[in-house]
């Protein structure tokens, strides 16, 4: 199972981090790595087919060899007078039926073997006793006041036991007080928050709540009194109301709206057509960063917690919203113990206690005034860097035309997939896209693909299929040869052992047919071995090919494709696994089924009707009932319904496990378990019972009528037994074969879906070789009268006649409130989307006319939320340029430029350190600096910085900003920033409001205008007191 798990993980990571993959042109690199895992999976599948073939071949030889010996020995007993023919027939019949039942269960051995392998891992997880168990009822449940104390804490993460995070850390937080933790990235601030929530236990020391060690307090009870807002907000794929309601069980709509108002979220939520019932999308992708953060804050506030933990709770907000939200958080913190982690020191100026954390211990503590009085103190130095302070925010009014236009558009959204998409200017979100060939949607009628068209894709394995069909045909001859041999053996029962001549005939007949039985066992064993092995080779090769093609097709899609609910990460992984695997059942194995069944049915019917046409007609009359029972059986299994439910469950499981810290902090594990544990009832038991009932009724009628024919001398006992057992064997083998072959119609439908998807061509095709590839790139960018609407929301304008010119080597900064269109502008330059009107040009070439690979190779991007892959630091940095081999010297130089080399050098494995899935093993600031190094490694002509320093602490920000300034020299640079201090030296600053450029100029020019930019700047800076 491991190879399959590995390539599923590769799909998962590539889909989740697709923007990063697309930005750096990593499609080929991801495909190469995926193909390596597919090759391992293919070998695993072939070996499995070989093993099953050997096992079932030995089973056939053993079973039929046993029949040969048993019947020979039974005839000998009759001949010696030790048994009656009836007794031997009864015993043999019972043994044969038992063997048949075992034979019917043989195909299930594969499932049992797989279940054992998976079960070992699953039951280890189930039986594992967690040291921190939120489902346990053990522990005290005291009334919580809110006094928190850290006493002599030493802590290292279990995954990095050699890196000390906290050392002799001690801190007292009185109830009702607001304590702020500040310090550089990686100093241990976020670890403190995790220890309070008891995500980890310290190796030394203790965390106390109201004087009680939190290890002695019930975990669920502890977390129910804590509200958390993290640096990177996590929303679940459900409505806004349900996301907020996750904060507390049984919350009312009135309480939800009250919390949203307190978090400054109510107004933008009310603008959506469905208001609080608006879907947030997977991971909140339908919301801008600021909107996600405000919903997360509302979720924490609705909980009414005794302890409030704010880990960069306002980091994603624009300054227009930040002051209001900060005021709301200040009010929410009244009467509560509040612990704040902040890089923006303006947000914690009024904290009761400010603690400076350095290298895992408390370096300074006091109020703002006390810390500012320390000469050359760490805190004072940080404040000097930021010069941050709160002030009243000013903004100009909206023109009447825009107000009227937006009011009209707000409720004119198109309905997509039964849900209205969002109606807000959410610049950083992506929405549904459009492709030239529409990929088959769930719920639509799908026309099954032609068998021969499917077979064409399996043509490279032609000879494997031919040999497999020959093996199937050989195995298919088993039933009628078996029936003839049984009839011949029963002929011996009709002779009188007391007559010498007949006694010798009994001996000769028993030996003759015993040899036939044994030869039949060898023949059918070889046949079923070749059938399993050859079709495993052809099927796994086709599966590998289709999975690779499908993976390439996934990476080929536009960004907007992945924002559709049906194209969530879990659903895509499930489809790539189940649909592609199902196609096997419509190719070589289907030919094998046809070969085996044709030989069995045609040969069997010929033997039966030639031997006794009367008895054969009686048995054939039961065929319609057998057919109906088979249809009932297949319908009862509900394969397609089960697949859809499993896909939905996969979405829930993926979303839950990916965001387990958020789920745990909310204490909603049980609710997510209930979402996962959907059940479906099948009537398989009734269907199986009715099938067996009809089989036995057929037996009863056949033996009764056959006995009548024997008594009337119409047929002999040999003829009757040959007919009955041939008919029986044909049915058994056909049943076994069909049980080993996936549902044919399902496979053809799956094939249609897979090949339709593979053949689909998105309107922005990153695999296309078409388009201009200029020899040189100067780096001039122009957005000329750009209007933009997301494809699924054509009534909503995101950009309105936007004009921006960035000359070669010039640095242009975009500023404005959340949702104004800044990140959308970046996406248009990268050509993640195409403009609705106007044009985006590079060096006077419309980006639509440029080769997409060439275009993106000229651009280096650092996004607001850095995405790292589960690789080493070295590999993550080198990922910035997948077109060549990157030397260690270049990697180190890029790391130095991003101010991360020193940190990497301090790690035990240096550049070979694994960063974990999505970079979970390093801090946010460290992730951001590695992302910056990754952008610099490709030496781009154009640099796009979307809040590139937003996750950095103040101490690192200035150094990194200087490095980015140096990196911008000679490059066209487009910067998005909320912190205006980072873009003061830009050649031009463009203020965007509601999709328009309303102000532009240098820092000094815009300040002189005393309009929007002046107001933004005033909020952020003040004279040092």
UniProtKB/TrEMBL annotation:
Its main location: membrane. It is found in: Membrane. One of its GO terms (molecular function) is ATP hydrolysis activity. GO terms for cellular component: mitochondrial inner membrane. Pfam families: ABC_membrane, ABC_tran. GO terms for biological process: oligopeptide export from mitochondrion. SMART domains: AAA (SM00382). It comes from the Eukaryota. Keywords: ATP-binding, Glycoprotein, Membrane, Nucleotide-binding, Repeat, Translocase, Transmembrane, Transmembrane helix, Transport. InterPro entries: AAA+_ATPase, ABC1_TM_dom, ABC1_TM_sf, ABC_transporter-like_ATP-bd, ABC_transporter-like_CS, P-loop_NTPase, Type_1_exporter. CDD domains: ABC_6TM_Pgp_ABCB1_D2_like, ABC_MTABC3_MDL1_MDL2. It is a multi-pass membrane protein. Belongs to the ABC transporter superfamily. ABCB family. Multidrug resistance exporter (TC 3.A.1.201) subfamily. This is Multidrug resistance 1.
């Amino acid at each position: 199972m491991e190879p399959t798990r590995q390539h599923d993980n590769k799909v998962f990571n590539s889909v989740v981090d697709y923007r990063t993959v697309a930005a750096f042109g990593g499609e080929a690199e991801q495909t190469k790595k995926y193909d390596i895992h597919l090759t391992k999976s293919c070998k695993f599948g072939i070996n499995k087919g070989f093993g099953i073939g050997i096992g079932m071949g030995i089973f056939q030889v053993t079973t039929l060899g046993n029949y040969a010996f048993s019947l020979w020995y039974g005839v000998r007993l009759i001949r010696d007078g030790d048994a009656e023919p009836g007794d031997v027939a009864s015993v043999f019949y019972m043994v044969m039926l038992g063997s048949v039942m075992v034979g019917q269960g043989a195909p299930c051995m594969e499932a049992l073997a797989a279940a054992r392998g998976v079960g070992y891992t699953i039951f280890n997880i189930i039986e594992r006793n967690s040291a921190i168990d939120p489902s346990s009822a053990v522990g005290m449940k005291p009334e919580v006041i809110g006094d928190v104390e850290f006493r002599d804490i030493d802590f290292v993460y279990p995954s990095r036991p050699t890196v000390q995070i906290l050392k002799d850390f001690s801190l007292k937080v009185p109830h009702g007080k607001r304590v702020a933790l500040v310090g550089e990235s990686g100093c241990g601030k976020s670890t403190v928050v995790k220890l309070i929530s008891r995500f980890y236990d310290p190796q030394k020391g203790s965390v106390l709540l109201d004087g009680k060690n939190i290890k002695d307090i019930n975990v669920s009870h502890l977390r129910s009194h804590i509200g958390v807002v993290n640096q990177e907000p996590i929303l679940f794929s459900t409505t806004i109301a349900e996301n907020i309601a996750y904060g507390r069980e049984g919350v009312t709509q009135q309480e939800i709206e009250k919390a949203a108002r307190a978090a400054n979220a109510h107004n933008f939520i009310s603008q959506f057509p469905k208001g609080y019932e608006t879907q947030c999308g997977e991971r909140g992708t339908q919301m801008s960063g600021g909107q996600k953060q405000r919903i997360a804050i509302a979720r924490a506030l609705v909980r009414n917690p005794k302890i409030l933990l704010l880990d960069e709770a306002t980091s994603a907000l624009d300054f227009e919203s930040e002051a209001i939200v900060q005021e709301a958080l200040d009010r929410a913190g009244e009467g509560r113990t509040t612990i704040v982690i902040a890089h923006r020191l303006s947000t914690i100026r009024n904290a009761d206690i400010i603690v400076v954390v350095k290298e895992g211990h408390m370096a300074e503590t006091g109020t703002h005034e006390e810390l500012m009085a320390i000469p050359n103190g760490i805190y004072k130095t940080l404040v000097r860097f930021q010069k941050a302070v709160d002030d009243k925010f000013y903004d100009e009014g909206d023109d009447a035309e825009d107000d009227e236009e937006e009011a009209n558009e707000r409720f004119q959204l198109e309905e997509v997939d039964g849900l209205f998409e969002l109606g807000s200017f959410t610049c950083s979100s992506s929405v549904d896209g459009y492709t030239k060939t529409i990929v088959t949607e769930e719920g639509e009628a799908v026309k099954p693909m032609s068998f021969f068209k499917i077979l064409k894709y399996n043509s490279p394995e032609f000879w494997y299929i031919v040999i497999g069909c020959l093996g199937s045909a050989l195995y298919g001859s088993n039933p009628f040869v078996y029936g003839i041999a049984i009839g011949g053996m029963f002929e011996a029962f009709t002779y009188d052992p007391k007559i010498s001549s007949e006694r010798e005939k009994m001996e000769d007949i028993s030996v003759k047919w015993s040899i036939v039985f044994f030869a039949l066992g060898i023949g059918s064993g070889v046949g079923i071995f070749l059938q399993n092995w050859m079709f495993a080779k052809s099927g796994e090769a086709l599966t590998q090919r289709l999975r690779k093609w499908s993976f390439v097709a996934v990476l080929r899609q536009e960004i907007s494709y992945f924002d559709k609910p049906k194209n969530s990460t879990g659903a895509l992984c499930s489809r790539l696994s189940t649909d592609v695997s199902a196609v096997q059942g419509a190719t070589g194995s289907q030919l094998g089924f046809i070969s085996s069944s044709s030989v069995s049915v045609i040969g069997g019917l010929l033997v039966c009707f030639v031997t006794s046409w009367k008895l054969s007609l009686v048995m054939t009359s039961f065929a319609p009932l057998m057919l109906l029972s088979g249809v009932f059986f297949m319908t009862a299994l509900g394969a397609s319904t089960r697949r859809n439910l499993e896909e939905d469950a996969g979405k829930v499981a993926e979303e839950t496990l990916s965001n387990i810290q958020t789920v745990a902090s909310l204490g909603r594990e049980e609710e997510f378990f209930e979402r996962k544990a959907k059940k479906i009832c099948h009537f398989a038991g009734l269907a199986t019972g009715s099938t067996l009932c009809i089989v036995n009724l057929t037996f009863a009628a056949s033996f009764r009528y056959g006995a009548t024919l024997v008594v009337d001398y119409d047929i002999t006992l040999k003829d009757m037994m040959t007919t009955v057992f041939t008919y029986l064997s044909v049915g058994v083998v056909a049943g076994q074969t069909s049980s080993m072959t996936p549902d044919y119609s399902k496979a053809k439908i799956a094939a249609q879906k897979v090949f339709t998807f593979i053949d689909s061509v998105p309107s922005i095709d990153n695999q296309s070789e078409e388009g201009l590839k200029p020899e040189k790139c100067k780096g001039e960018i122009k957005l000329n009268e750009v209007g933009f609407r997301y494809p699924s929301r054509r009534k909503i304008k995101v950009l309105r006649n936007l004009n921006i010119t960035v000359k070669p080597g010039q640095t242009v900064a975009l500023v404005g409130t959340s949702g104004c269109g800044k990140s959308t502008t970046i996406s248009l330059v990268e050509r993640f989307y195409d403009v609705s009107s106007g044009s985006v040009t590079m060096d006077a070439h419309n980006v639509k006319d440029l080769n997409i690979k060439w275009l993106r190779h000229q651009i280096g991007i650092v996004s607001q939320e850095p995405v790292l892959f589960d690789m080493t630091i070295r590999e993550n940095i080198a990922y910035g340029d997948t077109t060549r081999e990157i030397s260690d010297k270049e990697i180190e130089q890029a790391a130095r430029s991003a101010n991360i080399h020193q940190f990497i050098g301090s790690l035990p494995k240096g550049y070979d350190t694994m960063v974990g899935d999505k970079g979970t093993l390093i801090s946010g600031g460290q992730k951001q600096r590695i992302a910056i190094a990754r952008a610099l490694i490709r030496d781009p002509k154009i640099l796009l910085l979307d809040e590139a320093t937003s996750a950095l602490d103040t101490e690192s920000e200035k150094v990194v900003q200087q490095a980015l300034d140096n990196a911008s020299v000679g490059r066209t640079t487009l910067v998005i920033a909320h912190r205006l201090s980072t873009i003061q030296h830009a050649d031009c600053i463009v203020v965007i409001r509601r999709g328009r450029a309303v102000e532009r100029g240098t820092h000094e020019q815009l300040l002189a205008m005393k309009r929007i930019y002046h107001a933004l700047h005033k909020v952020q800076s003040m004279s040092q007191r």
